[in-house]
Amino acid sequence: MNVHSMHETIVFFDSTCLLCNRTLQWILSNERSHTMQFAPLNGTHSKQYLQELHDLPDSLIVVHNGNHYILSSGVLLVLDQMGGIWSFMSRCFRIIPRFIRDAIYTYIANHRAAWFGRTEECLLMKGSLRDRFLD
Questions:
Q1: What pLDDT is stored for residue 5 in this prediction?
Q2: pLDDT at 132
Q3: Which stretches within the chain are classed as H helix?
Q4: Measuring CA to CA, how many Å separate 72 from each of 34, 43, 48, 76, 102?
Q5: 84 and 42 in contact (C-beta within 8 Å)?
C-alpha cells in the first residue's frame, strides 16, 4: 500500500534531531488544518515510500499529493499547510530566490546537531499527539 493513499501531506523528519523535534512541536501547536501526518526518516513508512527516491536530505522531506518537496520548498509547503498567517508567510518567503533559501536551509541543516543536539528517540511520538505519527 502506498503511504500517499492514506494521507495527503506527510512530513518525514529526522526523529533524533532536537531541532526537528522542537520544530514539529511548534507546527503541531500552531497549525490550523491539523491534516498533516508525520513520520521519522528512519521509520517503516519512509522506507516504504521514499526507497525509490535518491539524493534526499536527512533532515526534512514533505510528500504532498504524490510529489516530494525538500529543503526550503518542503518548509514552505509545511507553512502553506499550516494555514492562516503561516500561509501568508510562505508566500512572502517565496520572493527570496530558491537557491538562496536552499543555501540557508542547508547551512542550518548541516549544523543542527552541533547547535541543538540529538536524542535517542523521538520526543513527540509518546504524547497525546501520537495519532498524528505514522510510525
A1: 45
A2: 79
A3: 18-30, 44-50, 71-82, 85-93, 98-116
A4: 21, 23, 24, 6, 5
A5: no
Residues in the chain predicted with pLDDT less than 70, given as ranges, are: 1-7, 54, 121-129
pLDDT of residue 125: 56
Q: Which residues pair with 64 in a beta bridge?
A: 9, 67
Distance (Å, whole) CA 113 – CA 101? 20
Nearest-angstrom CA–CA distance, 94 and 15:
27
Q: Is 51 helix (H, G, I), strand (E, B) or coil?
A: coil
Question: What span, in angstroms and rounded, lies between the C-alpha atoms of 17 and 83?
Answer: 25
Residue 132 counted as domain residue: no
The pLDDT of residue 1 is 36
Say if 43 falls within a structural domain.
Answer: yes
- Whichever domain contains 40, its CATH number is 3.40.30
Name the phi and psi angles at 118, rounded to 5.
Answer: -130, 165
Asked whether 76 and 93 are in contact (CB, 8 A), the reply is yes
Report pTM.
0.84
Residues 6+ apart with CB under 8 A from 119: 16, 17, 18, 21
